[in-house]
Design a protein that fits this description.
heterodimer, A: alpha/beta, about 35% helix, B: mainly alpha, MetI-like fold, 2 strands, about 75% helix
């Protein structure tokens, strides 16, 4: 607590339990949507993710927590193959999405990304109108009819609660929206490509409390239809909205389990220390 | 002490601003003072009468048209080469690619080569190919001159773009080409700035076109014919012993300045209009 680095070094000596054993979610969940087997990720010879074995439950919110630099975002990026853009990253292992290994050579990378809607840390509206932002995804994936595009855009803008706020100016630039509105627009844009999964990389960390609340409420609403995986820095947020928690530390999964159990009765010493704020 | 520091720095900055403005004002007033009396409607609408060197009749229409032909042609060439290359080294190649640093380094060298070298190189190339001084030669030589300028300034602006936009586009399932199209839209103001820089350099350069485009009293009607340019027309007229012809050089300089101004404002106008409607 006083000298964090000292603590971290000390923790490194702790022998990690066999990660195979830490797929406790396996016992709890019948339906499985994403299955990760022996995932290792190296960035320029640095071992970032170490033998990750995991099952992500379907139509639930799974929050990944852990101190900065533990590999949370790297993990999220492996799921929509964004690491393919950087040749320094080496990935081994298997990730099954709907029983198909997305790192198989036969799998089309565009299809994988279409399945995974990503909500980034900072909203990044495309340089076009509000309408075109939402319409962009459907258009590049082959939607042509004006009427269907119109319907889709209105439907998703309504879904994220933005339609009433912007209905008079959907043809104006998206960059003029407030940052909270922009993030909801990005969510609508992601949903418009009809993904099956939603990945959120600290999606609320740049937002004010009110916008954060709106996004969180949307996530809870969305889990009826989508499997949601969120990386978050705020434990309180994880407590509020998550169904399952995954705790990562130095590239390994330390503990995973249902939210209530995880917070009330953590099994590992490291988890207890993290939750009590000994290191962050 | 701190106060004094602040004061001195402020004086230096104000001085710098005043010097810049004074120099600009001095140049423009000299050009206008000597050129304005010689400037007439004939200057911009007529071809030179009785030769450009000694003639006091007619105008410099041949040079105006020639300059516009050459700059438009060379812009087309350099845009078609630099835009794809900048997109390629920024978004297709990995961040630490050897190829992209080689490209950037060679562009920096090309950037620093004096324009007379481009002219001489273009000339020797034309001799090798058996071409005469012509509009095409001028376009190619000026194209070579302005390409590194355009590419390097466009590249700098492109590198400032954060990774967020490409990542957002890719995670929506765009292909690289679809991504590049949207990014180009975002970069449009930067591209316009790069084009303006290139125009400024290209349209006013005399050394490149001296050997490659040649000079003529007529307006070229095909790519094989020689073309006159405003900088060369200023150069030749200034060399004349007749004072009226020398003053005509200043009038040509006014025309050249106005052309550059019109191009700049035009490009700014279109870029702002574009960004209002589409972006």
């Amino acid at each position: 607590m006083i000298i964090t680095s000292h603590r971290l070094q000390e923790n490194e000596n702790i022998t990690f339990p066999d990660t195979k054993e830490i797929s406790p979610l396996k016992k709890l969940i019948n339906s499985q949507s994403i299955r990760i087997e022996n995932l290792d990720v190296y960035i320029e010879n640095q071992h970032i993710l170490k033998d990750v074995n995991l099952i992500i439950p379907e139509k639930k919110i799974t929050c990944i927590i852990g101190p900065s630099g533990c590999g949370k975002s790297t993990f999220l990026k492996t799921l929509n193959r964004m690491h393919d853009e950087t040749p320094e990253v080496k990935i081994s292992g298997k990730i099954f999405v709907d029983d198909e290994n997305i790192y198989d050579n036969r799998v089309n990378i565009i299809d994988t990304r279409k399945k995974m809607g990503l909500l980034a840390q900072r909203p990044c509206p495309l340089p076009m109108s509000i309408f075109d932002n939402v319409a962009y995804g459907p258009r590049i994936h082959g939607m042509k009819k004006k009427k269907t595009i119109n319907q889709t855009v209105i439907q998703y803008l309504q879904y994220v609660g933005l339609w009433d706020e912007v209905r008079d100016r959907v043809r104006t630039s998206a960059t003029r929206l407030s940052i909270g509105q922009q993030q909801r627009l990005c969510l609508a844009r992601g949903l418009a490509i009809e993904p099956e999964y939603i990945l959120g990389d600290e999606a609320t960390s740049a937002l004010d409390p009110l916008s954060t609340k709106k996004i969180e409420e949307l996530f809870v609403k969305l889990k009826e239809k989508y499997t949601i995986i969120l990386v978050t820095h705020t434990l309180r947020q994880a407590k509020r909205i998550a169904d399952y928690i995954i705790f990562m530390y130095l590239g390994k999964i330390i503990e995973a389990g249902p939210t209530e159990e995880f917070f009330s009765n953590p099994k590992k010493q490291l988890t207890r220390e993290y939750l009590s704020g000994s290191f962050s | 002490m701190k106060y004094l520091e602040e004061k001195i720095l402020k004086i230096i900055m104000i001085c710098a601003a005043v010097i810049i403005l004074a120099v600009l004002l001095f140049i423009i007033s000299t050009v206008f003072y000597r050129g304005l009396p010689a400037l007439s409607l004939d200057m911009v609408t007529k071809l030179p009468g009785g030769g450009f060197y000694l003639g006091k009749e007619g105008g410099v229409l041949n040079a105006i048209v020639g300059s516009i032909y050459i700059i438009v042609g060379s812009l087309v060439i350099s845009i078609f080469i630099s835009v794809p290359l900048v997109l390629y080294i920024n978004f297709y190649l990995p961040a630490k690619s050897v190829f992209s640093s080689v490209i950037r380094f060679s562009l920096d060298i090309l950037f620093g080569i004096p324009s007379i070298v481009y002219g001489a190189f273009g000339f020797s190339l034309m001799i090798y190919l058996g071409l005469r001084a012509s509009l095409l030669g001028g376009i190619l030589a000026v194209g070579m001159l302005i390409m590194p300028i355009m590419m390097r300034s466009f590249d700098e602006i492109t590198r400032l773009l954060s990774r967020d936009l490409p990542d957002a586009l890719l995670s929506l399932g765009s292909t690289k080409y679809e991504m590049a199209k949207v990014i180009l839209r975002q970069l449009m103001p930067g591209l316009v700035t790069a084009i303006l820089l290139a125009i400024g350099r290209g349209v006013g350069d005399a050394a490149t076109v001296l050997f490659t485009a040649g000079y003529t009293d007529n307006i070229p009607s095909s790519l094989n014919q020689p073309a006159a340019t405003l900088p060369l027309s200023i150069f030749f007229q200034l060399g004349s012993p007749v004072e009226e012809v020398q003053n005509r050089a200043y009038a040509s300089a006014i025309i050249l300045t106005v052309i550059i101004l019109i191009l700049s404002f035009g490009a700014r106008y279109f870029s702002s209009k574009f960004s209002k409607n589409k972006i």
